[in-house]
Write a structure and sequence with these properties.
Elements lengths: L16 H22 L4 H32 L9 H27 L21 H5 L6 H32 L3 H28 L12 H26 L8 H32 L2 H13 L1 H19 L2 H5 L1 H27 L9 H22 L12 H5 L4
């Protein structure tokens, strides 16, 4: 089959409305964060929102690198012509990592985050604040070991993301299979490391906000959320680029594949969510049920909205084959899924990070979210504009250009 008449040197120009709107969103985010820190009573809430969005930002970029690795290990042909998008997300990962580490470090230093295990006297038997359970976990939940794990995990992810992007660039310049073989080999290593460490990363960053509670399924629950969010982000960028006249080689079959992934992993996310909930609900052990009781009492609306956005919407709207192939439907569902997993992280993080008296929803939440959306858009599209939009020497490029389902 032929290559058609596609321009294999086509390059995205990051100018105009996309650039302007992303900068405006960043400014709104800075204003929201500044407003939150200007009032002492809102510090915890502001830190919680910063953690939410920094974690979300990092997770989506991490999963961009994960997407690349999965495609290399699977030797997938369908995705060869769209790899520049997750590649751009992977390139941005170091920026997301620095922001997340700064937020966590400042949160620990000021005691506005992780106060359930990092507060005065919790591990001192002579203190009135002594907590026997937290003391028992102190060999794992202590600042040096905690920050060390964060730094090592996130640095390793960033290094693999860097090299996967670098070898893709070398492949464009040098041709041949040497870079592809390196990508395949190191992707195998990366997937093993990623699979074993992302649950621990989720335990540390999110679950330890409520250090008395734990769930062995929490890591996989977070993995499902970050993976499907990344798939939705890739779909949105591809569709918007196609609407802007770029990447004309992306056809409805490519969208169909992405739609299948979003549909399937939304069901997987729901399965893990339900399994975690049902086991805790059925066992009815007070130290376990307190997690859900708190959310029903104080975050009931968000609890149910989470299921509507992340399960019912993608399942009902993407069940039909034709809907997966219609760019407007897939675009709408992908936006819903990204908003849905913001809600997912919101009801995971807020109850443990914010005292009941500081609960609220308003400019801080909306502005911080908009700021990070703007930052993600600006950095990813800027990275995307640095190279041609197609990996012209990828060994499976012809299969992808002629991909039809």
């Amino acid at each position: 089959m032929g290559t058609h008449n596609y321009n294999l040197t086509e390059q995205f120009e990051f100018t105009g409305k996309a650039k302007t709107l992303s900068i405006i969103a960043i400014v709104i985010g800075i204003a929201a964060i500044g407003f939150g820190f200007s009032k002492e009573t809102l510090h915890e809430r502001t830190f919680a929102n910063l953690l939410l969005m920094a974690y979300y930002f990092a997770c989506v970029c991490m999963s961009g690198a994960f997407f690349l690795a999965v495609q290399f290990v699977a030797q997938a042909g369908w995705s060869a012509s769209i790899l520049r998008v997750p590649e751009a997300m992977a390139k941005v990962l170091p920026i997301a990592v620095v922001i997340l580490l700064v937020v966590i470090g400042l949160g620990l230093y000021t005691h506005n985050l992780y106060h359930h295990w990092h507060a005065e006297g919790l591990t001192d038997p002579n203190s009135e604040n002594y907590d026997k359970l937290i003391d028992g976990k102190s060999s794992f939940l202590n600042v040096p070991f905690f920050m060390g794990r964060q730094f090592v995990f996130l640095t390793v992810y960033s290094v693999f993301a860097y090299f996967l992007a670098k070898w893709s660039n070398n492949e464009d310049v040098e041709g041949g299979l040497n870079s592809y073989r390196k990508s395949f080999k190191y992707s195998c290593v990366f997937l093993v490391i990623y699979g074993f460490t992302t649950p621990i990363f989720a335990f540390d960053t999110v679950m330890s906000l409520e250090a008395h509670w734990f769930s062995t399924m929490f890591g996989w629950y977070n993995f499902a959320a970050m993976w499907v969010s990344s798939l939705a982000a890739i779909a949105i960028i591809l569709i918007l680029l196609r609407k802007a006249g770029y990447m004309s080689w992306v056809n409805n079959s490519h969208l169909h594949n992405l739609g299948q992934f979003i549909f399937g992993f939304s069901i997987f996310w729901t399965y893990v969510w339900f399994a975690q909930f049902m086991l805790i609900y059925y066992a009815n052990i007070p130290e376990e049920t307190v997690y859900f009781y708190n959310r029903w009492e104080n975050y009931e609306f968000w609890w149910y909205l989470n299921l509507v956005l992340n399960f019912l919407s993608p399942v009902l709207l993407l069940m039909d084959r034709d809907n997966k192939r219609q760019e407007n439907v897939l675009l709408g569902v992908s936006i819903v899924v990204l908003c849905g997993h913001w809600v997912d992280y919101y009801q995971m993080i807020m109850p443990g990070a914010v005292e009941k008296g500081e609960n609220g929803f308003g400019f801080i939440e909306i502005g911080t979210a908009l700021g990070f959306v703007g930052l993600f858009t600006f950095t990813v599209l800027r990275a995307l504009s640095k190279k041609p939009l197609i990996a012209k020497n990828h060994p499976f490029l012809q299969e992808s250009l002629n991909h039809h389902l």
